[in-house]
Amino acid sequence: MTADNYILFSVAGTSYALPSQHVAHVEMIDQVTRVPNAPAFVDGVVFSRGQIVPAINMRARFGFERAPLDMSSRLLVVQSKGRSVGLLVDACREFLNVPPSSIHPPGEALSGLSAQYIDGVASVGDRLIVVLGLDRLLGSTEHAVSTRPQEHASGEGHGYTETRN
Predict the structure, then answer these.
(1) pLDDT digits (tens, 9 = 90+) for 16-26
(2) Torsion angle of C-alpha atoms 82, 85, 91, 94, degrees rounded to 10
(3) What residues pair up with 56 in beta bridges, in sequence order?
(4) What is the per-residue pLDDT for 138?
(5) Does domain 4-151 have CATH number 2.40.50.180?
(6) pLDDT in tens, 39-55
(7) Cα distance between residue 50 and residue 151, in whole Å
(8) How far is the C-alpha of 106 from the C-alpha of 112, rounded, in Å?
(9) What is each CA distance from 128 to 4, 56, 83, in whole angstroms?
(10) How is the chain split into domains, by residue range?
(11) Can you tell me the distance from the alpha carbon of 46 to that of 33, in angstroms, rounded to the nearest whole number?
């Protein structure tokens, strides 16, 4: 049995995984431009590799208290259904092969909205890792994110500034 590749990241002390084929790239983040009338979990937009992408704060998305960006914070730019979306996470430093036999269904203990986008819980060594279903996670936020990334003519002069409080 072959293992599947995942990108691991942490949010509020919990480890999460996304299939690596959905992650375009991971980068440091220090600037987010807020946009008016965005849902509470959308911090704004970021300029990433020639594209303007919405930035979803995963702490807010999962119902945790927000934390300021720091040197460990990362932006995972993911691809789903022809669109690019940025996920702001506390840290992302690991690529892991996870055998399918290590992933267990979330069970009845996880119900409600969170169960909609959890594919399972992986048991790897002494760690538990929540495996997310990206299409369902983003599908539940479709009203909040654009369907196609916007191309910026050049990478210069975008002028984004940090406006967090």
Answers:
(1) 999 999 999 99
(2) 0
(3) 42, 87
(4) 83
(5) yes
(6) 989 999 999 999 999 99
(7) 6
(8) 12
(9) 16, 24, 30
(10) 4-151
(11) 6
